[in-house]
Amino acid sequence: MITDGALARLVRASADRTAAAESEVCDLCAAPVPEEHAHLYDTGQQEVRCVCRPCSVLFAQGGAGDGHYRLVPRRRVRLPRVDTEVLGVPVGLVFFVPRADGTVTAEGPSPAGAMRWEVDAAAWQQLAATCPQLAGVEPEVEALLVNTVHGLDHHWIVPIDDCYRMIAVVRREWRGLSGGGRIWPAVERFFEDLTERP
């Protein structure tokens, strides 16, 4: 049996390309990034992008990008119960993102991705007056993440990439019209795994 023939070389090359394609790379310079890496928020596309450590330094403290890219902070703060009823959002799994222009959006997961609607900015200010930590939420890149489904009581200030991870969990686990039996245990595990970070 010939182990180093043309076919074997082709199979190895294809496997190498597949492995390379599956590893994450920096969306700016294409350098490989480790599993734990920084993210940039693209304000134009409203997307989170992976970034390597050297590229992330360029965007620290509002550096490069003229605001088009914002470095996503790592801070996570668990809050006491926040009464979000004033915001008029009738769902129990949702995140609220203050925007640079003063507006606030609420986003909730669905099998197709995030559903988004605008929240009354005055209601957000009213809520922030009762919970001072909300006044420090960085526009675009941090959010108030809430889960009150099935009697749970999770309220967090998190980086926006955590919110998108939660949406990915919902999309991955959703089955049928109502979500099926796997979705809520997976969402509960997601919240159990959140840890506070300064």
UniProtKB/TrEMBL annotation:
What is this protein's record name? Answer: DUF5947 family protein
What organism does the record attribute this protein to?
A: Streptomyces xiangluensis
Listed Pfam families = DUF5947 (PF19372)
